[in-house]
């Protein structure tokens, strides 16, 4: 394959451990014209709030933003499923000229009457920011009329990156908690789970761990979420934040407003899951039974999964993986989990990592690993080939690239169908990696079979 | 629960779209651009638009989809996107080295009033467009029309930008295949060639979005209409536009500009529409229909006669794009099925009119709506149940809720393969459609048959 060149302006966003000595440049706006894998503010808000299943999610803008986000993320609900419907004001040319406020109000009133949601979120798209609809005022008016919280989400696409969308979603969540806060007592031995979206039922696994530990989960934000639970979130003793990028803003706001401390955890992989549970148990040190129960839980769970893990590890040892994810925090967990399977990372990249994230990545990675910020497909393809990776871990846009190159793929984004968190998630992950990496399909890849034929001849 | 959000009682809705049967213009423009050889589509707007379109196209085609974006920021939406686009053009030509950049706008850049034509001229003046390279553009505001409109606008743009007339006819024939699958484009081309006509087919996504697995990643796959071919469209002896909505504008523009006589035909879906297409080709190019095509036609007719008893009187609900639905409804009527509910999300009076004319002779009134949505279709189905549903993947919710045999057609198809490899147009495509319809109808018959009348031979 011809060598692929790298954009001059992007050289500081690509780092090779052991070769380069500069600080990786990050948190930059993408270069105009780059084929970036990044999304927008609206996307960030939509993915965070989407799993709240008994709320109305109305997208205020032309149809596209609603169409592209209609039920593509498998955030499961154990009850209502209103979140899986697609509601849009479907703005047309006349609305752009005369404003969309009337339409928005009418849509909200109609929908709230029809579905009786517990709250409504109104997502502002690019166009709403430009034509200047006073969404805040419309929401207030409708809230007064319908007696449910109606919350504007300021997620105009051009106002930043996906991260700014997380912040806009956190603002809306905080409002939901704060607006409706009644002076209620703190619930003893309780936590909120933040940044967990119940993809493939992951929330349920984590909640079950906490139940076994004797800890009450007040609210999950937002996996299998319910408005009423979110509104009680201020009654918890501790916020446990997963997926550092998205919900840390909310945790900080809640700390400031209600004095609820927070810790950052990851439920991915054996170490991180155990650490998460131990950290939470340690927080409730006045109740030592919790730590006892946690120890038992971890021992039992690890014992259950180890035999299968070591069997799978045999086939995976020495295989090389490329990782390209949204938030860098996920990459940390993936690196650890891959080490457990005997695999090495050769490329690690993220869409939205910050300086600290990349410093930590640099420390964690093996020498020679390529570290990328806001990569484009050409760069990804280039390093996957150069490093001869066996596996690519990424999202929807990366999948066909990996397959075209003839290597295995594992979706660690919202299109995954099986839970990857916790101890059982680790086995699921190992199975998924095994299934794709050891597939006989890759032996049929023309590039490889050609090489094999050559080497046989030689 | 998801499926129980559709209630039977139909209330008028003025202000909102629920479960859309369309999406926005830019994705259609991006799809059309991918049908040009060595072309990188460019989205002049926020990063999210581009990411969503690429993801949506990737999910449907399971192929890498490349496109760049102007990455609008708050600044560009205040001061205009000129600087972004000029920088983008420079970045793209120096790094990704396409021959052509196809720029489409978004609701954002349209509303702030960016003049892409003027920006493109400036880019050329500033020396950002290397010799022999091209920047073409189409205006595709998301709040007008639908994805079909965007496809039409970009198709027209490519014809207008490139076409020239030398005054000497080149003996070729322009075929505009419409917003169809890569497989359909290939099939149309095959049939035209079979008629001994030398076609210029544009756009042409075959071998772009249904390419083979090679073990290599090619940013610009082998397929696509070339700049030279597009230039030659002005010298062609005629144009046939397939599908009024997606193709007529480009054909008429060539007629007006270069006096290339055009005719607009329905998409060749089903027997009668394919007959008309073949007949139009025969007359326009002065050729006779070869036996091979007559044989294909006969085979399609043979399947219909063999199986006609299973089609008789079956009620069908349909959702899709106007250009597809018009000949499809005609086809279903011709095999004695009963289309009863027909919805397209794309606005436009002509669609309802055509369907009404086509169904005027029926002893019942057909429910038909342009600018409709899938929620409405589902409500109609609840009120008058059907034996078959034909829609894109989102139809599966209705199919599951009401236990309806379901055939996937149109865009997007997110949960099955085949559509990009096997056509549904022309005679062969007609056979495939019948096979798909029969499969689900007969599976249902088998499933529901009491044991004593469970038949081996059908």
In short:
The complex is a heterodimer of chains A (458) and B (458). The model of chain A has no long low-confidence stretch (mean pLDDT 90). Chain A contains 18 helices and 14 strands.
Task: Provide structural commentary.
The complex is a heterodimer of chains A (458) and B (458). Chain A has 458 residues and is an alpha/beta fold. Chain A has three domains: 8-28 and 317-416, Rossmann fold (3-Layer(aba) Sandwich), CATH 3.40.50.1980; 41-179, Nitrogenase molybdenum iron protein domain (Rossmann fold, 3-Layer(aba) Sandwich), CATH 3.40.50; 190-300, Nitrogenase molybdenum iron protein domain (Rossmann fold, 3-Layer(aba) Sandwich). Chain A has helices at residues 41-49, 63-68, 93-98, 101-115, 126-131, 135-146, 162-179, 202-213, 227-231, 244-258, 270-283, 288-316, 328-340, 355-364, 377-386, 399-405, 422-437, 446-457; strands at 14-16, 55-60, 87-88, 119-124, 150-153, 190-196, 216-222, 238-241, 262-264, 320-325, 344-350, 370-373, 391-394, 408-411. In chain A, strands 1-12-11-10-13-14 form a six-stranded mixed beta sheet, with helices on both faces. Chain A has a four-stranded parallel beta sheet with strand order 3-2-4-5, with helices on both faces. In chain A, helix 8 (202-213) links the parallel strand 6 and strand 7. In chain A, helix 4 (101-115) packs parallel to helix 6 (135-146). Chain A is globular and about 65 Å long. Chain B is globular, with a radius of gyration of 23 Å. Chain B is built from 17 helices and 14 strands. Chain B has helices at 25-33, 47-61, 74-79, 82-96, 107-111, 116-125, 147-162, 182-194, 227-232, 244-258, 271-285, 291-311, 322-334, 349-359, 374-383, 396-401, 426-448; strands at 17-18, 39-44, 68-69, 100-105, 134-138, 173-176, 199-201, 238-242, 262-265, 315-319, 338-343, 367-369, 388-391, 406-408. Chain B has 458 residues and is of the alpha/beta class. Strand 3 (87-88) of chain A pairs antiparallel with strand 1 (17-18) of chain B.
